[in-house]
Specification:
It is a single chain. The protein is 31% helix and 29% strand. With 401 residues, the chain is of the alpha/beta class. The protein has two domains: 211 residues, Spore Coat Polysaccharide Biosynthesis Protein SpsA, Chain A, CATH 3.90.550.10; 155 residues, 60s Ribosomal Protein L30, Chain: A (2-Layer Sandwich), CATH 3.30.1330. α7 crosses α11 and α8 runs parallel beside α10. The protein starts with a strand and ends with a strand. The structure holds cytidine-5'-triphosphate and magnesium ion.
């Protein structure tokens, strides 16, 4: 992907996060979350991208930034940023060399999943000159001015902008030149391209691409990263010591299969995916259903059919999450708690591996214990190999004190 450059802007001061060290303000990207600078988390997230990376940091932090990049396993050119975000992007743009496409990304969106990068790149490669990942706005929004509060703005007409934003390099260069000094007020690169009269293409953003801005955002990032570390530790028996008397342990296994052909969206492993959905009375999330059977089986509490009548109208189209949470609650009523779950998805699409971290986070939050996710194709053999549906297999370990 040598035709693609990635500019990571990390030159902001982090006023709203407000971290200090020895009485001095710490630039946000160098503030630590879950034991590492925000910049390190951001760079770990892009290590697999294969783009040539330009890192824009506050003047004087170049050496620190190089050391952080080395720890994160990425090679990056490091340049000093400017007084505004746009100045920092411009500094990065001057350092990308001959790339044809460029992604501009906030270091502060340190947990952005690879799937977001993939969606933006796919739209760029399909010919768009400017691509932004967006999310619907969830809060009710009201305008405000000196006179106080104004009218409510219809939120269905609003979108929140995220990064990475993707551009054809000549277009972004033209936009920055045309904006001149007026760029100082812009915190959104696509806005400058739009000012040229160029169309902007929107793709799905991601909840996990939230910008670490306030201390509450940092706490959220910390919790998500801690959960991930828990998944990584899962293979270590020491991570499962309980102290005191040995608990009762049991394992269970679950399998589920759904065919493509649903009229709803494609849900798998707790995530929504592009493409045709899976058929089923519920949302057809085979990974969640396999996890439910593994958990219930381990506790000797039957299977998903016992949990909810399979045709129960209350569960028509229900998310896999509803069943997983119901299973965990039923286990708890019997004194059981999950220790860990492993789930493997067999199928041609979607490619689970592209969003593994995200799936693990989402599923771990549902189960309340580490869930690891793996995927495999079946070498083209059988109905699953022909892409007619998806199969999932899960094992669960549960404990009772
Ligand atoms: N940024 C930058 N150069 C600037 C200002 C911002 O590179 N002069 C980067 C930040 O490092 C961040 C991204 O742009 O990754 C988004 O900016 P924001 O979240 O506003 O970060 P800060 O400006 O650092 O935070 P604050 O506004 O709270 O001071
Ligand atoms: Mg700022």
């Amino acid at each position: 992907m040598t035709d693609t450059a990635l500019i990571v802007v990390a030159a902001g001061s982090g006023t709203r996060l407000g971290r200090t060290r020895a009485g001095r303000p710490v630039p946000k990207a160098f503030a630590e979350v879950a034991g590492a600078p925000i910049l390190e988390h951001a760079l770990r997230g892009v290590a697999g991208l294969g783009a040539s990376i330009v890192l824009v940091v506050p003047s004087g932090f170049e050496a620190d930034a190089s050391a952080i990049a080395a720890r994160a396993g990425v090679r990056a050119a490091v340049v000093a940023g400017g007084a505004t975000r746009a100045d920092s992007v411009a500094a990065g743009l001057a350092a990308i060399g001959h790339a044809r496409l460029v992604l501009v990304h906030d270091a502060a969106r340190a947990l952005t999943p690879m799937a977001s990068f993939d969606r933006v790149l796919a739209a760029l490669r399909a010919g768009a000159a400017a691509v932004v990942p967006v999310l619907p706005v969830v809060d009710t929004i009201r305008s405000a001015g000196e006179e106080g509060l104004g009218a409510i703005v219809d939120r269905s007409s609003l979108r929140a902008m995220q990064t990475p934003q993707g551009f054809d390099v000549p277009t972004l260069r033209r936009a920055y030149e045309a904006a001149g000094d007026a760029r100082a007020a812009s915190t959104d690169d696509a806005q400058l391209v739009q000012a040229l009269g160029e169309p902007i293409v929107a793709v799905h953003g991601d909840e996990l691409a939230f910008k670490i801005t306030t201390p509450a955002d940092a706490a959220r990032a910390e919790a998500l990263l801690a959960q991930e570390a828990g998944v990584a530790e899962q293979a270590t028996p020491a991570g499962q010591t309980t102290g005191g008397a040995a608990p009762e342990l049991r394992t269970g296994i679950g399998v589920d299969v759904h065919a493509f052909g649903g009229d709803g969206a494609l849900w798998l492993a707790g995530l929504e995916w592009e493409g045709q959905g899976l058929a089923g009375h519920s949302d057809g999330d085979a990974a969640c259903h396999a996890i439910v059977d593994a958990l219930l089986g381990a506790a000797g509490l039957g299977d998903i059919g016992a949990l909810v009548g399979v045709d129960d109208p209350r569960f028509a189209g229900a998310r896999g999450e509803v069943f997983v949470r119901a299973a965990v609650a039923l286990l708890a009523e019997h004194g059981w708690a999950p220790v860990n779950v492993a789930v493997q998805v067999l199928g041609v699409r979607p490619r689970i591996g592209t969003r593994r971290d995200e799936a693990q986070r989402v599923l771990s939050a549902m189960v309340g214990a580490p869930v690891s996710v793996s995927g495999t194709t079946t070498d083209g053999l059988g109905a699953i190999g022909r892409g007619e549906g998806v199969q999932a297999m899960a094992t669960a370990l549960i404990r009772r004190p």
